[in-house]
Amino acid sequence: MQNAREVVRQTMALVLAGGRGSRLKALTDTRAKPSVYFGGKFRIIDFALSNCVNSGITGIGVVTQYKSHSLLRHLQAGWSFFRNQMNEYIDFLPASQRLDEEHWYQGTADAIFQNVDIIKDHKPKYVLILAGDHIYKMDYSLLIMDHIRMGSPLTVACIPVPREQAKAFGVMNVDSNNLVTEFVEKPENPPAMPTNPYMSLASMGIYVFDAEFLYEVLAKDAATKGSHRDFGMDIIPQLVAQHKVHAHDFSKSCIRNSGNKEIVYWRDVGTIDAYWEANMDIASIEPQLDIYDFNWPIWTNQIQLPPAKLVQDISGASTIFRNSVASAGCIISGSSINQTLLFNSCRVHSNCFISESVIMPFCIIHRACRLTKVVMDRGCELPRGIIIGEDAALDAKRFYRSEGGVTLVTRAMLTKLRQTEPELFEDFDNYKAPVAMPSY
């Protein structure tokens, strides 16, 4: 049996980062879902990439398609430390119609198939396929070693999820040997786990293939008329029927919170409510996901910025800061901040009250604003005294309000609001100049 160090050197990871993530609404109007900000300073894709590096996998391809400029700029700026002379690399694989001049990526399997020639050039023995839009910490070397031990050409990582949430995933059943006996993609009525009628066993969108087997499977799928060119809809169900798929229990490779070893953390932040909730966990007293773990760091692009600063306002009132996160470059003056994440270079002026909110980089919140359960996109500037999160009907009229009561605010929404309610912005042009903001 090979050791883990040898195995990861023979593995190429492919991160599928081409999806829009339409359930995140306007947050993905200008960027792909993996490029969305998360956790005070990161992007969502940083978690999958950091898992690769921390697991010892330094051969990575990132497959992009939908509005990838922001994502590619982030990867170029923050993930350029790989050394070619050590056979380390991060390849960007945008949709480029490599097979013909008619089709972009048609599905997850097609996205890999269109890059097979590039994958073969790297000569991997194993191919690790990852979704680039989930939040979790996982040692992929343990997954790959489990794949080798089980002996099947395909291993699918899985995790129990509540049945009402399982409609968004591939759902499987396994036998006592962890052989997958049934796989259904996004079923309307998800099958329950035999041991728990309230839970379903969901695919995490993480697959390990023997490389040669993957090439054969993709070529066969590409030649199959009517295929969706998708792993979950076509390839995995067919391989399950051939008894060639094993399941890997995520609890065996999860990097756990040092304060609570019982927690197995994995989140699909595919909706505004789920995204807000996962960010709120980061700001809690004992977060379920430990981003302060020096043994398993989350890497990202970091702009050179001064430390965050909390000051009194002109009248001498102090800033109150509870259970919150303020990233570098933030300045908060005489305001109350509770259970909130402030990303890089945010400005909060005097006498504001902000609670349970996610404020992305380079936002300006002028004095006397009140925000409750708000997700504010990058570069927004709020006029003085605006109240968001207290009047559901008004919020839904001005912005986007989710089923869970989270209000999403974007620059486009504020531009429209300035046209429909100009009185809110009467002295807007007299405010302090906006924070200089990078182009990505």
Automatic annotation (TrEMBL):
Which residue ranges does UniProt annotate as crossing the membrane?
none
Q: Which residues bind alpha-D-glucose 1-phosphate?
A: Y105, G170, E185, K186, S203
Natural source organism: Succinivibrio dextrinosolvens DSM 3072
Protein name as annotated: Glucose-1-phosphate adenylyltransferase
Can you give the residue ranges of the Nucleotidyl transferase domain? 13-283
Record EC number = 2.7.7.27
Q: Which NCBIfam families match?
A: glgC, PRK00725.1, PRK00844.1
Read off the InterPro entries from this record: ADP-Glc_PPase (IPR011831), ADP_Glu_pyroP_CS (IPR005836), GlgC_bac (IPR023049), GlmU/GlgC-like_hexapep (IPR056818), NTP_transferase_dom (IPR005835), Nucleotide-diphossugar_trans (IPR029044), Trimer_LpxA-like_sf (IPR011004)
Class of this enzyme:
transferase
Respond yes or no to whether keyword Nucleotidyltransferase is given for this record.
yes
Q: PROSITE patterns attached here?
A: ADP_GLC_PYROPHOSPH_1 (PS00808), ADP_GLC_PYROPHOSPH_2 (PS00809), ADP_GLC_PYROPHOSPH_3 (PS00810)
Role according to the record: Involved in the biosynthesis of ADP-glucose, a building block required for the elongation reactions to produce glycogen. Catalyzes the reaction between ATP and alpha-D-glucose 1-phosphate (G1P) to produce pyrophosphate and ADP-Glc.
Q: Which residue ranges does the record assign to the Glucose-1-phosphate adenylyltransferase/Bifunctional protein GlmU-like C-terminal hexapeptide domain?
A: 306-409
Gene assigned in the entry:
glgC
UniProt entry keywords in alphabetical sequence: ATP-binding, Carbohydrate metabolism, Glycogen biosynthesis, Glycogen metabolism, Nucleotide-binding, Nucleotidyltransferase, Transferase
Upper lineage is: Bacteria, Pseudomonadati, Pseudomonadota, Gammaproteobacteria, Aeromonadales
Query: Which residues are marked as site: Could play a key role in the communication between the regulatory and the substrate sites?
Result: Q65, W104
So, what pathway does this thing act in? Glycan biosynthesis; glycogen biosynthesis
GO biological process annotations for this chain's record?
glycogen biosynthetic process
